[in-house]
Amino acid sequence: MKKHPTLRKTAVEYGIITVATLIMVVGIYVFKFPNNFSFGGVTGIAIILAKISPVTPSTWTFIINMALLALGFLMLGRGFGIKTVYVSVLMSLALSAMEKLFPMSEPLTSQPVLELIFAIFMPAFASALLFNIGASGGGTDILAMILKKYTSFNIGTALLVVDLLITVAACFLFDAQTGLFSFCGLMAKSLVIDGVIENINLCKYFTIVCDDPAPICEFITTELKRSATVFHAEGSYTHADKTIILTVMKRSQAVQLRNFIRFHADGAFMMITNSSEIIGKGFRGFN
Question: What is the C-alpha to C-alpha distance for residues 287 and 134, in angstroms, rounded to an integer?
Fold first, then answer.
């Protein structure tokens, strides 16, 4: 039977979601909106609509997000994620609040490349945090959920086409510089998201060949609070009996284990490999 998440775990998750959403809001409002960077998503649509109407991008974002939430509840029912609802509402309200509290009539700086970097990195970093704990930024993700349920479309391709159309529209509605910056943002944002997620989950995988596994295993279990798998092997050159230890741990623990083996297990042979994701007890996939 699946365990219900504890109150503490839920509070931590929603704390991370809140911080990530606010980081996303700052990146969008301070750097994306004033420069008209339109590289996809609801905020990209909002920038385009704001250009051809008297309504601000923040207001359009609120309207579109609320419409998509209503559509999601209508078509997905109880399968609609509460985290997605929370992110969509919080982002929409926070953008509206920023518009009233910190009105911006022009870009923060005179350096569009610098602002593009922040317009890409901050929302992408926030999205990576959200994806990493099973949440999403709402918006076009809601459309993806609906398409997945009711059609056989390739969702990734469909969303990419939508983002591409938004970016192309920016080339016609704004100047060439803004359009080209928007294309750069479209190409870079997915790379940043993937890179952040990979670094968040990065672990170290150890393959240790040694003669005496006892002190190494004791250090792993007692000091690092991890486990290991041990099996016996034979050296192909000397035909001597060897022991192989397999273990996985976080980066900070990996440094401790590496140093311990170097100074206390003379003759041991280590192979340390980066692993972008570990699923199992003590890592991901288990409560």
Answer: 14
Which residues, in sequence order, are CB contacts of 183 under 8 Å at separation 6+? Answer: 39, 167, 171
DSSP helix/strand/coil, 205: strand
Is residue 86 within 8 A of residue 17, CB to CB? The reply is yes
Query: What's the pTM?
Result: 0.70
* Integer Cα distance of 31 and 55 in angstroms: 19
**CA nearest to 38, candidates 211, 166, 175:** 166
Residues 6+ apart with CB under 8 A from 185: 37, 39, 116, 119, 120, 167
Residue 274 φ then ψ, to 5°: -75, 135
101-110, 151-160, 182-191, 219-228: segment of lowest average pLDDT: 151-160
**Partners of 231 in beta bridges:** 244
- CA neighbor of 32 nearest in space, from 107, 129, 96: 107
Amino acid at 132: N
CB 230 within 8 A of CB 245: yes
Pairing of strands 241-250, 229-234: antiparallel
Tally of residues, the chain: 287
- Burial per residue of 108-134, b for 16 or more beta-carbon CB atoms within 10 angstroms, e otherwise: eeeebeebbbbbbbbbbbbbbbbbbee
Torsion angle, CA of 107/108/109/114, rounded to 10 degrees? -90
The string of pLDDT tens digits covering residues 96-110 is 999 899 988 889 888
